[in-house]
Amino acid sequence: MQTSTHTPTSSILPLRVLVVGGAGYIGSHMVKHLLRQGCDVVTFDNLSTGYRDAVLGGEFVLGDLADKTALESLFTTHRFDGVMHFASFIQVGESVKEPAKYYENNVTNTLNLLNAMVKHNVKRFIFSSTAAVYGEPQYVPIDEAHPKAPINPYGKTKWMAEQILEDYDRAYGLKSIALRYFNAAGADPDGQLGERHEPETHLIPLVLQAASGHRPHISVFGRDYDTPDGTCIRDYIHVTDLCDAHWLALQKLLNGGDSASYNLGNGNGFSVQEVIDTARKVTGQEIMIKDSYRREGDPARLVANSTSAQKALNWQPARYNLETIIEDAWRWEEKTTRPAIPA
User: Which of 25, 134, 154, 168 is catalytic?
Assistant: First the structure.
């Protein structure tokens, strides 16, 4: 199935879109998606976690959101129809150990970006948010009405940014859509892009690194959860489906839509063991498992209710099958060169 290619009706093409963090995992896929829609894309990235060769087209500007002078130059030089922000730090464990790093980048630097937008009358903003704003789930699947009670600095910074966006809409007319991801997964179906996190913390690439021999085993943290096979269940959404939702969200704002927040997920949960079993099937490789204790703060189930996004954005996940997600990620893993991690 192919993702949507609707064309906004209220703006003259080509749209010029600023992608902040466009050299990272989701941002680089977004740049490719926008280029396919005929957009004029400018990527702004400091390459602290991204890769220059992941930006497959458009203009690249090396810069940091902490640098207000660089932002002023960027917005003075270009006229943007919309801005997409993917430049947050995302590691939960690191956020607990280094909260200052997360508040500075995810809140203060986001404010720098928003203030530059307000100054230069750029009114449409798509924000990469997270299911971590909800904290411990009180029920599943989780909808947007679920209480917001983040339990780590990462989730808190994203929730703060969302609240700032509400205030900037009221005060300055800056329209935004915050998209709360559950578990981004998969890779570009063409094999050009994929996950390159250092260190890697996401389950599917870790499992595939065990399959490729780049790591000796995959750790399973707990087998005594209240789930059918005892391992945690998560909602995995393909990165290209995320990109399609961002494109549709931008169109909604271009066509006069109001600010909003939406969950993005498949609405289906897969357990850790299901991911490992599917990876074995896809790769044909044995994957060594090391059982370990539960991690603090790991809920048994995290599954999205994405009905609001589907209705408001006319969006449907296209690559929702777990086998498809892993096939795409495996294609990328097979072509990725990295040193093996010793046992």
Answer: 154
